[in-house]
Amino acid sequence: KFLFTNELFDGNTEQFLQVIEDLNDCISLEEAKSKLDAQAQKRNWEQEEDPFQKLQTLVSRKHQ
After folding, report:
1. What's the whole-number average pLDDT of the chain?
2. pLDDT of residue 13
3. Which of 10, 40, 47, 60 is packed most tightly, with the most Cβ within 10 A?
C-alpha cells in the first residue's frame, strides 16, 4: 500500500483508496485491466515500472 500510494499516487492516500475501490468493484479481469490502463494513461504511469507491474499482478490475482 505504501509503495503504491507513494510511487503511483504521489502520496495521496485518498486517490489510491478510490482507485482500489473502483478496481474492487469490477466484475471481470478485463474490466479491471481496462480501468487500470485508463488510470495509467491519466496519471502518466510508466507501465513497465515495478510499482505498476505489482499493482497489475495484484489486480489479476484478485480476478482469477
Report:
1. 95
2. 97
3. 40
